[in-house]
Amino acid sequence: MREVDAVIAARLDSGVPLVAQVCSYIISAGGKRLRPALLLLVSGALEVRSAQRFNLAAVVEFIHTATLLHDDVVDESTLRRGRPTANHHFGNPASVLVGDFLYSRAFQMMLDARDMRVMEILAEATNVIAEGEVLQLMNMHDASLDEASYLRVIRSKTAKLFEASTRLAAILAGSPPDVEQACADYGQALGTAFQVIDDVLDYDGDAAEMGKNLGDDLREGKATLPLIAAMHRASPSERDLIRRAIEEGSQDELDAIVDIVRKTGALDVAREAAAQEARRAMDCVSLLPRNEYSEGLLQLASSLLARRH
């Protein structure tokens, strides 16, 4: 990860001061670096030694960071990773344009791999993520959204870059098709579980630990799995309350809605959905060589369910 951070620092260099300021602001905020870590773990499991793994790990982090910059503008978010979002600090125009810079820099960097398969995977992932963002925008304030539609969004918007990260490591290793698919499936399952747990924490987390405001999903009119499950199990009057809050994007009844989500067992339903995805990810590891890196992949999937931020 130190090698990846060195690549990130070197490739963020720009002659435009505002680009450097915004990039430095969001990158220095830290974050989990989960996608590049996944690429490195799978590379280790498959005994990839090429320095290209560091370059591609930085590429997926740049793509992820670009989506965060654009997301926060679309969602009108004000807090991320415990401090004001870039759009809140620098304004929406700067955030959108620097997000574009990160996308274009990522595409410059992926050329270094000189591998059309690498280009194909990352180009497709970036396109699917953009489609997922638009799909989520279309679903805003739609209280009739079902679990299948919800999963379609998060598998596009979140899990796709996880999937690309793990598949890229298999491509670098020259793995056979079944191993490459197992790596991709691991990433998709882990990314899906990660997002479901993230949505759970919007109703069951600690704002200080998470570094963002609780109830943001409700304010944005997002019908996430905890709300979908709660509406299936709530009384008619409670269902109406949740429906109005989603349609209006209102946090006025947030405490009451959190109480409904908790007492109906909706959080348990969502956590079990995440657990199923985590188990699916762990099953995929059986096709990889047994070493400390594949053991790390198992531990990561297992520990994901206990995350609090």
TrEMBL record:
<dbReference type="InterPro" id="IPR033749">
    <property type="entry name" value="Polyprenyl_synt_CS"/>
</dbReference>
<dbReference type="Pfam" id="PF00348">
    <property type="entry name" value="polyprenyl_synt"/>
</dbReference>
<dbReference type="GO" id="GO:0106350">
    <property type="term" value="F:all-trans-octaprenyl-diphosphate synthase activity"/>
</dbReference>
<dbReference type="InterPro" id="IPR008949">
    <property type="entry name" value="Isoprenoid_synthase_dom_sf"/>
</dbReference>
<keyword id="KW-0808">Transferase</keyword>
<protein>
    <recommendedName>
        <fullName>Octaprenyl diphosphate synthase</fullName>
        <ecNumber>2.5.1.90</ecNumber>
    </recommendedName>
</protein>
<comment type="similarity">
    <text>Belongs to the FPP/GGPP synthase family.</text>
</comment>
<dbReference type="GO" id="GO:0008299">
    <property type="term" value="P:isoprenoid biosynthetic process"/>
</dbReference>
<dbReference type="InterPro" id="IPR000092">
    <property type="entry name" value="Polyprenyl_synt"/>
</dbReference>
<comment type="function">
    <text>Supplies octaprenyl diphosphate, the precursor for the side chain of the isoprenoid quinones ubiquinone and menaquinone.</text>
</comment>
<dbReference type="GO" id="GO:0046872">
    <property type="term" value="F:metal ion binding"/>
</dbReference>
<keyword id="KW-0479">Metal-binding</keyword>
<keyword id="KW-0460">Magnesium</keyword>
